[in-house]
Amino acid sequence: MLAVGLxxxxxxxxxxxxxxxxxxxxxxxxxxxxxAIPPEARRLLGLAALATGVFLVxxxxxLGA
Length: 65
Hints:
Elements: H1 2-22, H2 24-36, H3 39-62
């Protein structure tokens, strides 16, 4: 279980690092766009992302990962 957690964390850091390394200006623009969204809408977006992530993890485990 620890190995799977470390693998997941490593993959997240790879994706995050690629975004910042390849497109830092786009990240700045996205952050500015996020500031324009009301906090409650950002909270709902975060909850939707969380639910999607939980679903994908469940689906992956169900399919045998």
